[in-house]
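Input record (Table S2, row 378):
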Amino acid sequence: MGIDVDRIVNSNGNSTDLITCSICHDILWKPFTCEICENSFCNDCISLWLEKHPNVCPNNCEYKQRQRLPLILVQLLSKLKILCKNQQTGCQDILSYESLEQHECQCDFQIEQCIGCSKAMPKKERNIHEPLCEQVELQCHVCQGKYKRMNGHDQIECLQNCLIEQQIKIQLLEDKDKQQQIRLEQLETRLTTFENLNNRRIIQFDDVFESNREHIKTNGNIDFNYANFIWENFIYRHISSAIYEDGCMMNSNSSNQNGYLRVNAFTQGQEYVLSSNSMASPYQYSYSFPQLGSSYPTITSSNGTFDIHSIDISTIIPSSQILVTGLKDDCELYTKTIFLTNNSTRIVLEWLNIDKLSFRLAHPSGNTQMFLSRLILT
Ligand SMILES: [Zn+2]
Ligand SMILES: [Zn+2]
Ligand SMILES: [Zn+2]
Ligand SMILES: [Zn+2]
Ligand SMILES: [Zn+2]
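Output record (zinc ion complex):
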């Protein structure tokens, strides 16, 4: 723990007793002195001793540490000329007691290990070896990847890979953004639809006057000005009458198998629907096409214009093709061709500012009957 006597170059055979540690018998290193017996010991030596023998001096007195070292001891130590501990690995330096510690910390001949191959060598050699050692692990500052010097790392390839990765990341972010945008739009649309629906007026023929209820049920139809509209060439029909008629059709074994599907008009839980009388070709009635004659089913506002969102419509003769027309002051503003089916289908119109809806056949021959189960006005 102390300094080997052999490293003292100016001992000249003189006794080193006064500066020798009583524990390790080497030259004292960072010594402390016992106040009672005046013996000195290396710091490490006395610390170890006291761990095993608390408060007892190696000389058997009660150990009490002297505040300061004896002056003579300091003077003797400072006269020493000492060889560096790395003499065997090539250091030729001779140092004073005071400068020894600092020198040995920085000595070029200190043995150190290469961080790559772990080979031990003097610091001086390591400084040259390590920057070239093939085993040293390096880190790429582009991709942060680690690699051994001997394996190399292609910077251009690395940059290209990084670029591709970044592009993929950007693409993913953009896709995500797009999806969120679409989702947002869907939500906005739903909100708008919801808001609009709140303002909509739905006519579904379920609030026909209670006083006429039995009459309608019994007779299957009634004709009056309902919901501020004049319904021409339509009849109100109660589900009981549709069931009755379909039943009759089936019992009579009609050749027209489609004829007993009137009841399909009621599939959306409706009790009442509006049914046209048979819609025949205009030629059969000798009207010149496309005149909107009064024998076609029409719905006319009895107080100003209205905006229509949609109609729910079906037929007993599937694939009938009809034209729905929106008019104002008998001028045709909108027309839409509709293929009717057995099942009630919502046809969105979104027509604004009209005062009449007219229905007629799309082709100059044929015949159909249609059912209107719901009108949605905005
Ligand atoms: Zn010692
Ligand atoms: Zn002592
Ligand atoms: Zn040295
Ligand atoms: Zn190495
Ligand atoms: Zn890289």
